[in-house]
Amino acid sequence: MNHRLHTALRLATTGLPVLPLRKGKVPFGNCPACRDSACGDRPHMKAAGPCWCPAPCHGWAAATTDPGVLTSPSWATAWRQAAAVAYHPAGAGLTVVDLDDAAAIAWARRTLPPTRTVATTRGEHWIYQGTTRSVNGVRSGVDVKSTMVYTRYLGPGTGTTAPLPDAVRALTEQKPPAVYPAPHALCVPVPAGGGQCPHRTPAYLERGIRMAEQAIAEARTQVHATVYRAFLAVLSTHGRCGCLTDAHMARLFTAAQAKGESLRHCTDAWTNARTRLGL
Fold first, then answer.
1. Within the chain, where are the H helices?
2. pTM, two decimal places
3. Per-residue pLDDT averaged across 241-269, rounded?
């Protein structure tokens, strides 16, 4: 048996939802049936939405504890190509405080209660019992990983898993702010037809927004560049037809801020995308 699949099955028996990662520590891309949100973007493991795709092609949301899924033919190719095993922390009721360097580790030792610790290439993962929002860059060298993300499995670690402290929850509440400023109105012409897409059905717009949200949520590096590209993609398709609303813009800003982007960064990315398109 593939040793990564063996590890995944062992972890699944402990209640840890797992998935394979490709080289570069990234998940497997959408299969043809799920490409461009044709499936509705909700894998069957979550029991929500229309997608019942058996392939491990939905990033963190594909993580599962089901041995029948993990050993299925549709996952076999992925395990043969896998470079690592990852897991969805919140799926097991966990939060990982990812400490990237010695300075971050020193801060954690001064600030956070001891807990189960796993050594990483450059730092440590501090694992707590309990879930919270996932936010990158809560401070220098510190990411919080829980909901809607995956993290590599690097071993069982040492120590006893402590309850998630309020200090970590407080870090995740700093980004985004508790009250969002109202998004700026979109200065694009609204065509006849009440703002409906003249070239597609309204469902096409919804798929586009969800695709942008997913792309932002799954960004592992270059988050700001990913946010800009997602904004650009939405605006290039819908920026002139009048169907975008402040509610759509707020959804995109919320997805970006959940990855640690500030309101200023979101506004800059939106403005730059509009400028590039001449809107």
1. 3-13, 67-70, 73-81, 102-111, 166-173, 202-217, 223-238, 246-258, 263-277
2. 0.63
3. 81
